[in-house]
Specification:
The protein has 482 residues and is α+β, with helices and mostly antiparallel strands. The chain is built from 12 helices and 17 strands. The chain starts with a strand and ends in a 22-residue tail after the last helix.
């Protein structure tokens, strides 16, 4: 159980927010597609072997102070998404006195279990996520961020974030999180250090010669915005699990792929890991739909889709600063026939599809934005029940956020995402290993775990194909880490 110890609001020191941008930010064409995206929920679990009294007397005041100091550089997170009364494009607006909701809570759950890799009940995580107050939604005003710090006495601390993707992509939010952690550990002097990277807000660097902002608003602006309202969580049979792919395993998968594709000399970690996960997810879904029978009957022309995003900061012409705070992602879509993915060599089909989609998006002679005006049309044609997507990226070190709590770096990083979305990040124990996090109904997770583990072993043993889709063992253990 989780019960609240304190609820408060944290604002930056009075007069400390730079008024250079007049406290408001227009939405760019990079932001607008995230307008109706579900609220993001992420968690960092830290080991903390102190009792409640120490937490309240020492940690709580420190966290409040460091958050206040950090927020003066991140005014969009303090503000609100504001819809104008004339029906125009909303903007992110901050005014003096705006603040972020911060909740301190205490939890009786098993910290080591929740912060592990094995299967865990999905519903247990949602009580660690702060609620964003829906106040003022009748006036078209929606808060951006809420934070909750939950104590597991003598065991650990979980720092949970609920935020609206409209304000920042993963790179931008990671910048905020890392800076806050540094200020909490080292103090205010961190903000004056020579190497500090502060956010860049100038929206004029985003060029829009073909009117993408209007194109996207004409579509997304017609959809009713539900804002920060969060439907009550109902009990479900979903479990969360993390799978570890070691460096040697990823290198083995890459070598196998290269051996199968003539003239291919290089394939990225991202492409191989995502291709392998996508093929395993599709095979697991096919087996479940087939009622666990060996023979799965599907329409061979039915399409499966895999969505991922590309950071455009360095790919725009001209490039924009890496510290740009906002969204600067462009979507890419890999598509292939379902029958190809559930075949024994489905992994190869998935890798080929992702590789081609990446080349079309990143290496297009017309630039990274080539064909983006057709994005809305393409998305409308997709069957979302046959869409898998990845959240996160290996190049962000989510474990490099040391708040100065006991053992320093997080024990576990977790992202709460939609069904058929999986998270991808580097591993804490070894930065050359990778974590794949998923949330499925338990029956599907068991099937996925077997396919994922057995398939990887098969490729590393230099087999030409992965194991066929077969019934899961009744004795398959709950632990789903490789």
């Amino acid at each position: 159980m989780v019960h609240v110890l304190e609820q408060c609001r944290i604002a930056p020191p009075p007069g400390s927010v730079d008024d250079k941008y007049k406290y408001s930010l227009p939405l760019t064409f990079f932001d607008i597609p995230w307008l109706h995206f579900p609220l993001m929920k992420i968690f960092s679990f830290y080991e903390f072997s102190h009792p409640k009294a120490y937490f309240l007397d020492t940690i709580v005041p420190r966290i409040k102070h460091s958050l206040s100091l950090t927020l003066k550089h991140f005014f969009p997170l303090l503000g609100n998404l504001v819809f104008p009364t004339d029906g125009g494009i909303p903007e992110i607006r901050y005014k003096d006195g705006d603040s972020v909701s911060l909740t301190f809570a205490e939890c009786s759950f098993d910290f080591d279990h929740l912060s592990g890799d094995q299967q865990r009940n999905d519903t247990d995580f949602h009580s660690l996520a702060p609620q964003i107050s829906p106040a003022s939604t009748n006036f078209g005003i929606f808060p951006i961020l809420a934070i909750q710090v939950t104590l597991f006495p003598n065991s650990g601390i979980c720092i949970g974030f609920t935020f609206h993707h409209i304000a920042a992509d993963a790179r931008a939010f990671h910048m905020f999180n890392r800076l806050w952690a540094s200020v909490n550990k080292f103090g205010e002097a961190t903000l004056e250090s020579p190497g500090i990277v502060l956010p860049f807000y100038d929206r004029t660097v985003i060029k829009d010669p073909i009117g993408l902002r209007s194109t996207f608003w004409n579509h997304y602006g017609k959809i009713k915005h539900e804002g920060s309202t969060q439907p009550p969580l109902s009990p479900n049979n979903n479990v969360r699990a993390t799978f570890i792919l070691r460096r040697a395993e990823v290198e083995g998968l890459k070598k196998w792929v290269i051996s199968q594709i003539p003239d291919l000399q290089y394939v990225s970690n991202f492409t191989v890991i995502c291709g392998y996960a996508w093929s395993c997810i599709t095979k697991a879904g096919a087996r479940i739909l087939g009622d666990h029978e060996d023979v799965v009957v599907v329409d061979e022309n039915e399409l499966e889709n895999f969505a991922f995003t590309v950071d455009c900061r360095s790919l725009l012409d001209p490039p924009i600063p890496g510290a740009y705070f906002g969204n600067c992602l462009m979507g890419a879509l890999a598509t292939t026939k379902r029958m190809q993915l559930i075949q024994e060599d489905g992994f190869l089909a998935a890798v080929n599809s992702i590789r081609k989609a990446m080349e079309e998006r990143v290496r297009s002679k017309e630039g990274i934005l080539q064909g983006v005006q057709n994005w809305v049309r393409d998305l409308k044609s997709i069957n979302l029940t046959q869409l898998v997507a990845v959240v996160g990226a290996p190049r962000f070190d989510y474990y490099d956020m040391d708040f100065g709590l006991d053992l320093g770096r997080p024990k576990k990083f977790e992202v709460i995402s939609r069904d058929n979305y999986f998270s991808l990040s580097r591993c804490k124990a070894n930065q050359q290993d990778f974590e794949v996090g998923l949330c499925f109904p338990k029956a599907k997770m068991d099937v996925f775990a077997e396919i994922f583990t057995d398939g990887c072993k098969g490729y590393l043993q230099n087999k030409s194909m992965s194991p066929r889709i077969q019934k899961p063992s009744r004795n398959f253990p709950h632990v789903s880490k490789l």
